[in-house]
Amino acid sequence: MASTLTRPTASSTVAEGPSLHAYDVGLLIVRVVLGLTIAAHGAQKLFGWFGGGGLEGTGQFFTMSGYPSGETMAAIAGLSETLGGLGLVLGLLTPLAGAAVLGTMINALAVKWGGGFFAPQGVEYEVLLIAGAAGLALTGPGRIAADRFLPGLRAHRLGHGVAAVVLAGLVLLIRN
Fold it and tell me: How many Å apart are CA 35 and CA 89, to the nearest integer?
């Protein structure tokens, strides 16, 4: 008699079933592309890489956009993007990484608001990044992720994602 405990089923948890699903690969692709894109933007702010302004230039932009302490805010945004992006790439603390990206991009949306929807002056890029970060925070990283090895995050909980999205929304209070 075959044991149902050794056979993966549709309701198997991450620890039980060894096989990957298409959505695990799909989530990996979304995480890597979104995470590297955001991490590169963070490197622009922090180090001036990839044609960025570094802390000084980005700080001046933040000051002109109405943020207090422009260089400090540039450092916070740069660290949030770099660490959040790398966290998404690795699938490490995914809800928190998604919240870091989401909070930063909500602020970017607020700065660019009023230029229409379509690029180059519009907000379509920011909206796509917001949707991707929120989606990853809510769904989790899939099974090809470092979170799989963390006991508390082995099985993604909707509560983690909702808490991350709420945390990111609170970032708007910094700007206002």
Answer: 5
More confident site: 3 or 103 = 103
pLDDT at 18 over 90: no
d(CA 118, CA 116): 6
Report the distance separating Cα 80 and Cα 55, nearest Å.
14
Which residue shows structure tokens 């309701």? 11
Which long-range contacts (C-beta less than 8 Å, at least 24 apart) are formed by 145-153? Answer: 145/27, 145/28, 145/31, 145/90, 145/91, 145/92, 145/94, 146/90, 146/91, 146/92, 147/91, 147/92, 147/93, 147/94, 148/14, 148/91, 150/93, 153/93, 153/94, 153/95
pTM over 0.70: yes
**What is the number of alpha carbons within 13 Å of residue 98 lying toward its C-beta?**
26
- Residue 8: pLDDT above 50? no
Answer for the pair 45, 58: CB distance below 8 angstroms, yes or no.
yes
Q: In this structure, what token pair is assigned to residue 139?
A: 């769904």
Select the more confidently predicted residue: 123 or 110: 123
